[in-house]
Amino acid sequence: MLQNCLLKDFESINPLKISINKQEQLLSFDGILHRHDGVLLLELETNPVKQNSNFFSFYHQTKSSIDQIQRASTLEQMSQVVVEEIRKVTGFDRVMIYRFDPQGAGVVTAEDKEDRLNSWLGLHYPAFDIPLEARELFILNPLRFIPDVEQLPTPLVPLTNPLTQRSLDLGKAILRSASFCHLEYLQNMGVKASMTISLIRDRQLWGLIACHHYSSSKHLTYEARTICEFLGQIMSLELGTKADYEDREYKIKLQSLQPEFVQCLTQADNLLTGLVQSSSNLLQLVSASGVAICWNNELTLIGQTPQLASVQALLTWLEPQISNHIFQTHELPKLYPPAASFQASASGVLALAISQNRKSYILWFRPEVTQTVNWSGDPQQNATSGGSEVRLSPRKSFELWQEIVRSTALPWKACELEAVADLRSVIVGVVLRQADELARINVELERTNDELDAFAYIASHDLKEPLRGIHNYSSFLIEDYADLLNEEGVAKLQTLMRLTQRMEDLINSLLHFSRLGRIELLLKDTDLNQIISQVESVVKISQPDTPIAIHLPRSLPTIYCDPVQVNELFTNLISNAIKYNDQPEKQVEIGYLTGAELLKQNPFCEISSAVLVLYVRDNGIGIREKHLDSIFRIFKRLHGQAHYGGGTGVGLTISKKIVERHGGKIWVESTYGLGSTFYFTLAG
Ligand code: ADP
Q: What is the position in ligand 1's atom list of the atom closest to the CA of 581?
């Protein structure tokens, strides 16, 4: 019979049903044949249970398990199905799946067990828990079975194979004894019987299905073992698909966040607000637990991060290390020792430079791995053998593993780095679009301004002529027909003339204003003291009877500007300071401050500290707060024509235009009844 087997595929004939008559007693065995190293080995296992092992019973037992395995949509679900099915087939007290990481350390990812046992789900093991030789054996021999860890090994007889003169290689034998070390390891955990099935992906050991029995030794039939091995193979085959699927799912999830970013960032008032509003997406994008946004050198922290000062210091260290906009590590304390003080929250960091010039970065943080481990139950309770003999136990392994992975975080995945690079494109895209939009609006504004100036110019020109006509006719009427008209008629004509005169003044102001926008600035170094003395003499000559005191606390600087326009600017402001003034002596102070000096007086002032701020201060009537902005609008006057010498309401509009054409800004501070100060800059 055995000779016949030599021609066949062993898998298809195993197990051979072998009966041996021993002292009138029929002993039945499962004979398991395998060929290895040029030798045919027959192992005999007692098989007390009479089993009808045919293809159909095997098919029935495995079909539903396979269906469930294939239906599971995630690796996690599949793992759970496998541990439950294997436990159903074998009756082991505990069935688990270990998964190895690229460094060889393992974690329990699925478990089915007796209720009374504590869970080991989420426990991690260091790589050396399963030595390299053992891993190679696991690949060679996908199922290892130890029915009784206490069983003493039986020596081979004879020790040397008389045919080959070599010792027998039992690498693929099922009945061979396990290594002393491994048996001790199992005994330390209180395990009486164990079985491991290899999970192999791309010819590498991906993980193990590990079965433990604590209550007694455990015998499993060849058929039961075959089913388990078969389920292990099915799971191995499915690993690729499920893992790829999960990866794909994760990638799709990451990609799906990008349009949300675009929406959030484009709708927000500014990019920083947009990023802060998308903080949960930001964290999800790379499965981080904290994020720091550094925008124009200003830091915002979200979630679990180091302290502000630590992030600032980290950024300074990190900036020169960023290449291609990204820096990443999952072992920060090894590269940057100060990180040891915050390794719990940030052993891993992923930095994205949006703009190094503008000091705009996003930093994601990952905590130390040990902080994220799911530690459920205390496996120590299951370790039976105490005392100094305990070499390895799940608890001990876990502690060792913790030591090894201290100050490291989970590594950043390639797809996460891609997602971050995509986010940069999104942000840069939004910034560029906003800049484009701004440029477009500016061009549009410029065009509208030009058109408006041209319109005002043409309109005022065209209006002037008929207006002059009306004025002249009214004047003729009064001169030539005054005798024919009664008093009321003359008064009406005089009003008509006054109104046309006023209209002409308005039109002239408008014309002047529109011309201002059309003429080129003639910039040159200009001594402001000279300008003031010119303005002072003109103002004083035009109002010889008014006591005016113009005072300069310190000599004014020389600045680069258009002297004609700046002269007009000072003329407007000084005239107003005198005009809107009830005091017997009209006092005007003209001076300057640096931005820094002004900020000291008023910290809320939006001004850069380096800029020069000029001012014209008076002791006049002051302006109510509600009018402070509107007085710069064209034709806006706060008083009737009969008061304060009248006016067209264009002076301040012209002043504002002059200031803005020089790249500066103008504003006023005032105390009603006490006086006003007009501040302005002539550069940004
Ligand atoms: P106007 O030709 O009427 O003087 P402006 O544009 O120069 O036109 O000023 C607009 C209004 O702002 C004035 O009508 C006046 O009410 C107010 N105003 C301007 N300067 C001062 C000042 N120094 N003190 C008080 N009110 C002022």
A: 24
Greater pLDDT, 172 or 612: 612
**Nearest to 289, CA basis, from 277, 273, 276, 306:** 306
Residue in this structure with the two tokens 């105490």, named with its chain if needed = 386
Q: Which residues of 405-421 are buried (b: 16+ CB within 10 A; e: fewer)?
A: bebbbbbbeebbeebbe
Alpha helices in 91-212 (DSSP H): 132-140, 180-188
Q: Is 675 close to ligand 1, i.e. is its CB under 6 Å away?
A: no
The CA 678 to ligand 1 mean position distance, Å, reads 11
Tell me if 218 sits within 8 A of 193, measured CB to CB.
Answer: yes
Residue pair 106/124 in contact by the 8 Å Cβ criterion: yes
Closest C-alpha among 235, 69, 215 to residue 143: 235
Tens of pLDDT, residues 559-610? 999 999 999 999 999 999 999 999 999 999 999 999 888 888 877 777 887 8
Strand, coil or helix: 272: helix
Helix H or strand E encompassing 363: strand 360-366
Q: Cα(556) to centroid of ligand 1, in Å?
A: 25
Query: In 3D, which of 438, 265, 241, 415 has the Cα closest to residue 354?
Result: 265
Mutate which of 621, 637, 655 for ligand 1? The one with the most ligand atoms within 8 Å of its CB, which is: 637
Q: What is the DSSP string of 518-582?
A: HSPP--EEEEHHHHHHHHHHHHHHH-TTS-EEEE-SSPPPEEEE-HHHHHHHHHHHHHHHHHS--
Q: What number of CA atoms fall less than 13 Å from residue 153's CA on the CB side? A: 9
380, 395, 504 from 388: Cα distances, Å: 14, 15, 110
Pairing between β-strand 204-213 and β-strand 290-295 as defined by DSSP bridges? unpaired
What lies within 8 Å, CB to CB, of 242 at 6+ separation is 72, 73, 74, 75, 78
Query: Whose Cα sits closest to atom 16 in ligand 1?
Result: 638
Does residue 639 have its Cβ closer than 6 Å to ligand 1? Answer: yes
Which residue shows structure tokens 């998308």? 278
CA dist 349 and 553 (Å) reads: 56
Cα 577 to ligand 1 centre (Å): 8
Nearest CA to ligand 1 atom 13: 637
Q: What does R_g of the chain's alpha carbons equal in angstroms?
A: 46
Residues 6+ apart with CB under 8 A from 302: 276, 279, 282, 283, 290, 291, 292, 293
pLDDT at 389: 30
Whole-number Å distance between alpha carbons of 430 and 441: 16
Taking a C-beta distance cutoff of 8 angstroms, is the pair 213, 192 a contact? Answer: yes
Flag the least confident range among 288-302, 361-375, 404-418. 361-375
What's the pTM value of the predicted model, to 2 decimals?
0.53
The per-residue b/e assignment along 195-220, b for 16 or more CB within 10 angstroms, e otherwise, is bbbbbbeeeebbbbbbbbbbeeebeb
Atom of ligand 1 nearest to the CA of 675: 24
Q: What is the pLDDT of residues 400-453, one digit of tens each?
A: 667 777 778 888 988 899 899 988 988 888 887 777 778 888 888 877 777 777
- Work out whether strand 16-22 and strand 106-113 pair parallel, antiparallel, or are unpaired: unpaired
636 C-alpha to ligand 1 centroid (Å): 8
Give the 3-state secondary structure of residue 257.
helix
Compute the C-alpha angle 632/635/637, nearest 5°: 75
Q: Which residue's alpha carbon is at the smallest distance from atom 21 of ligand 1?
A: 576
Task: Tell me which DSSP letter residue 301 carries.
Answer: E
Give the mutation target among 579, 580, 650 for probing the ligand 1 site: most ligand atoms within 8 A of CB. 580
